[in-house]
Amino acid sequence: MPKLKVNDIEVEVEEGLTVLQACEKAGAEIPRFCYHEKLSIAGNCRMCLVEMEKSPKPIASCAMPAADGMNIKTNTPFVEKARKGVMEFLLANHPLDCPVCDQGGECDLQDQSMFYGVDKSRFKENKRAVPEKHMGPLIKTQMTRCIHCTRCVRFATEVAGVSELGAIGRGEDMQITTYLEQSMQSELSANVIDLCPVGALTSKPYVFEARPWELKKTETVDVMDAVGSNVRVDTYDWEVKRVLPIINEDINEEWISDKTRYACDGLLNQRLDTPFIKYNGKFEKASWSEVFKIIKSKFENSSNDKVCGFVGDLTNMETGYIFKEFFDRTLNNKNYDSRSDNRFLDISERENYIFNSSINGIEDADLIFLIGANPRYEATMLNARIRKAFVNNNTKVISLNDVGDLTYSYKNLDGQTQTIKTIFEGSEEISKEIISASKPMIIIGESLLKLHSAEHLFNIIKNFLKKNNKFTEDWNPLNILSCDAATVGNFDLGILNSELNLLEELKSNKFEIVYLIGQDNLEFNKKDEFVIYQGSHGDKGAEIADIILPGSAYTEQDGYFTNLEGKIQKAYKASYPPGEAKEDWQIINELAEVMNNRKLFNDKEELESSMFNYLKLQQEKRVTINKEKTTLEFQNEKLNIQLKEYYFSNVIARSSKTMIECNNSKLNIKSTGTEG
Amino acid sequence: MSLRRPAKNQPETFEFNSSSMEEANKIVLKYPEGKQQSAVMALLYIAQKQNDNWIPLAAMKYIAKFLDMPYIKVYEVATFYTMYNLSPVGKYFVQVCTTTPCMIRGANKLVEACKEKISDKENELSNDKSCSWMEVECLGACVNAPMMQINDNYYEDLDKEKATEIFDKILNGQNPKPGSYRGRLNAEPENNRKTLMDVKNA
Would you state the pLDDT for residue A675? Predict the structure, then answer.
């Protein structure tokens, strides 16, 4: 490992690191524009110049590999003069429009020009002007501000996997452009806004909304998919202004998907802000005490086993838990479920419903087999990780179905379940590949679990992997790709009914009262059921309801979510519920009090500790049963991947105008016929 | 620099003809399997030669497909290098060197000749659409200044009359003889000097 001196401090760095990284290790901050940890090195902004002993000229530290015996100086007048010179050139063509620039206050160029900028310009020539580019509904361009760091170009080609951005021309005529004049064909496109060190690429939906210092920043997790990306929610009073990624190397690294970032305007529309009661087919506003009274009398007038409850896809674990407690303790029945489809699920072992190899594990895998999954739309961040593995390690990817462009190349099979069967009975070429792989990953999508022979297939896959010793202490090849934020948490809490098929019973109208918590995906013909809907948005669930209890969205209450890997993370309260809406757990707690004169839990802390106790007990109770049942019925089926519409996959996204625009912009591209 | 942006009128399609194809395949073979993209510059040049000295967008798309690389990468390369012409320049493409040595030896007179004979402005096609001219930086033939390049040939030791003569020939469809127009062989010294010892008043 090379040893070098930075400002007379000895540092030892790993082989292959750059001088810039060595300087950071020694505690010397280096200004930079083009360098970014997660992208390849370009070395074109020249802001990171440092002085190196025996070098007559300053060196670009981001592009110079650290070598033994280097003597680096970062704080000499020589360095400062060099950086000032670079800054002067950068500012020569940069417009002085900070007061009207959305990047103001969080602009790298603005910050660094405070240190290295010169107060007046020596350039008498005209500044150049660059025409704006059209980059779709998410990215606003102001290309005159561009300093050609090419971060966006490198992000698009390396991380997002769409080679649509490029730098054309040279010298003063250089421009960053998409030749398409269309939105980028990527679900990660808006990350270029964060990457842009100046105001050339800014957020279109957030344009002129707020200044960064006016916003309250809350670090929390995202619920748009089951990945659980770590985000920062910026609020101005009640309103969620924007969502930004925060770094979590285990989950989303530094990026988030466009849906995570821009569905937040859905939190402002279609909100339920007061309790409603349906009279003669019309909703009328009511007070909490009124609706609770009605619900109580309804519950009293029907027998307990005629009540059922469904938990939705964005519900946090506390709410799920108290809902379960409400049924267990107040109503004395177990008619609750969190599934809105007939999917196969065996919760006797936790590994049967989580992503066992973990997201980080993707980079260690040597073979990835996708069965009934389209990770690009079901878990965008996870797909970015598969692409990373594909690019860095040349990981082989096989998919049972042809799922279109996944941003990396893969081998696709015929999409028949018979193929799965033959592969996992061990007689195919791919079977041998799986056996010979040291860390294979089998990624099973929800579409497979919804098949008739799901149980049979699931068991032969698992047994095949077991038989070939693919389950080791540090590797579990079985991965279930859940699509919704609440799925794994609900299964952990046991919110499902394995004895009765509640959905079938519901469809045959056996229940008198249906209690929905944020569950909008149920398909049943309502007859005489009394439907209580508790949730944040007026959507499909609220439409069929007789009573609406206004709840909170994920940014308005503290709550735990378990991501698809089984990692439990807390979403923090960034804003408060609108109008008379309350936090979800509170509503159920108060309802229980109305019914039994006793609250289920005294406060949130008691609820949380009770929930964690329950989770712990569940974990201990689980015993690994080595059952080898593969004799279940099997029939060959075509495995169709059922995707929810990507931009409308949950209530928040459905209420978001930006998501509609995104959807339309993708549709337009399809209709021009140039996409192929 | 007006040639650095693609022309407005673009042909719909482009394909290598058989001789270009042969040449292109030969170049691609020089690179190891999977590294064919390195041939992009040579292929762009072949396309330019085939298409009357300029590269249409269709050719870039064709080359991108030919080398299995993103179109934007080809576009970047084509817009970066000044010797790729992105708009029509005429079958005879005249480049007049106006860098210092040529300028001292009277390159401006050649420019005048261009303006009179070909077109008023740089990069404008002549009346019969067969010819255009532009000023360029040093072409590396300073010993024979002033000079100009027409397609692949250098015409050296010129003055206004000689340049006009060359243009007349070109516009009549003739092929004027390349090389020095003061009777020199390549860059040999004038007046039969063979060594520096012969130089008087040096």
Answer: 42
